[in-house]
Design brief:
Blueprint: H1 3-6, H2 8-11, H3 15-25, E1 29-33, E2 37-43, H4 47-52, E3 80-86, E4 92-100, E5 121-127, H5 131-140, E6 148-152, E7 156-162, H6 176-184, E8 189-190, E9 194-198, E10 207-211, H7 216-227, E11 231-233, H8 236-246, H9 251-254, H10 283-292, E12 297-304, E13 315-317, E14 323-331, E15 334-340, H11 341-346, E16 350-352, E17 358-361
Parallel strand pairs: 1-11
Antiparallel strand pairs: 1-7, 2-5, 2-6, 3-4, 4-5, 7-10, 8-9, 9-10, 12-15, 12-17, 13-14, 13-16, 14-15, 16-17
Helix pairs in contact: 3-6
Length: about 375
């Protein structure tokens, strides 16, 4: 079945009203292939109990939607969830997105190792440079669990996101949610060759698409059939700038492997960590930081006063030379930095120590 036919039933649901909402609300929709992301497939009867003991978020959210906590800037769905894989010291190995498939079970049972029988299946999205290492790490914890883990080479990850004509207009960031919500109201799709879901972290990140096609034109025509809105061919760079404007980290450059804590990466604010699921790898330190109520450093969006290449890991200081943060990555004049957030907001004069480039930062609207 072609992608167009898979979308066909949606076209019949009254697209004229949807299209009119889009025309009023959208500046543009951008579709980017995320070549820096890779998918792992986990199959077998023990998918749920296996991952529940390893990931910092509650895998039951994919099986029991009523458990999902309400968050102001996210749209609840049991089709996808964010999480982190931690090491034994509570530091992040990598961020992941976990997806249901057409073969995912409708319920979850925590069975003793080796005693589960019903088939189950989930997809794990991660940084492509970490995929092999993550697969090896996960496989090393399988013990007697009935699971199979493989790198999925037939599926491609895309993102459909609202793109501002002027990407320097920070005042329009909060409107992203309205712009993408019109599309997400149409409904999510979980299929063998096509999956479309809301990004579970924040609505403004758009919609995640997993498809067998690598052809932009094919995917674009299918999406246009339900939006009546032009889709711009976009690049990974555009997507990265979009994330950086919102202040959302992703991948090994933003979350250095085993060198940052999940709460420093805003896992709590992005709905990527659970505090009532029970034990998991790295849980003790994560819970301790949360319950003390003190997270001094957080990943924050930064804006440079000029487009310049900056070296990752370099210092950001105030006018007195006090070190307030570390640059994670910058693209164009946008970037992310791990900042002592309260001091950084209070300071009016932030500077990149190595180059003297002036830097500004702000609290993302979705922190509130």
């Amino acid at each position: 079945m072609s992608l167009g036919h898979q979308f066909g039933f949606l076209v019949e649901l009254g697209n004229q009203n949807i299209a009119s909402k889009f025309n009023r609300a959208m500046t543009a929709l951008a579709l980017a292939r995320l070549t820096n992301r890779k998918l792992l497939k986990i199959t077998g009867p023990d998918c749920y109990p296996y991952l529940q003991g390893l990931l910092c978020n509650d895998v039951r959210y994919l099986y029991e939607p009523d458990r999902i906590p309400e968050r102001k800037h996210a749209k609840n769905s049991s089709n996808a969830m964010g999480a982190f894989m931690l090491n034994a010291h509570g530091k992040a190995i990598c961020d992941i997105l976990l997806y249901r498939t057409a073969l995912t079970r409708q319920d979850c049972v925590f069975t003793p190792p080796g005693q589960a029988y019903e088939h189950d299946e989930l997809l794990i999205e991660c940084d492509s440079s970490l995929a092999s290492g993550l697969a090896n790490t996960l496989y090393g914890y399988r013990l007697r669990r009935k699971i199979r883990l493989s790198i999925e080479n037939e599926l491609t990850t895309w993102c459909l996101f609202p793109k501002l004509v002027d990407n320097h207009d920070s005042s329009a960031l909060a409107s992203f949610e309205e712009r993408i919500s019109v599309l997400s109201d149409v409904g999510e799709i979980i299929g063998d060759g096509l999956t479309i879901v809301n990004d579970p972290r924040i609505l403004s990140m758009g919609m995640r698409i997993i498809s067998k096609t690598t052809d932009f034109i094919d995917l674009k025509s299918s999406i246009q059939s339900i939006t009546n809105q032009d889709i711009l061919e976009s690049t990974l760079k555009d997507y990265t700038i979009h994330r950086y404007m919102l202040g959302v980290g992703e991948g090994g450059q933003d979350h250095p492997e085993s060198n940052c804590f999940p709460l420093e990466c805003n896992a709590d604010l992005l709905g990527s960590v659970s505090y009532d699921k029970g034990c998991y790898l790295g849980q003790e330190l994560t819970a301790r930081i949360h319950f003390t109520g003190v997270v001094r450093k957080r990943l924050m969006p930064i804006t440079l006063d000029t487009k310049i290449d900056l070296r990752s890991g370099t210092e950001i200081v105030d006018s007195n030379g006090k070190r307030l943060g570390l640059l994670r990555k910058a693209v164009g004049n946008r970037g992310l930095a791990l900042m002592r957030h309260e001091l950084a907001i209070a300071s009016q004069d932030l500077v990149h120590e190595e180059t003297g480039t002036k830097i500004s930062t702000q609290v993302p609207y979705w922190w509130h």
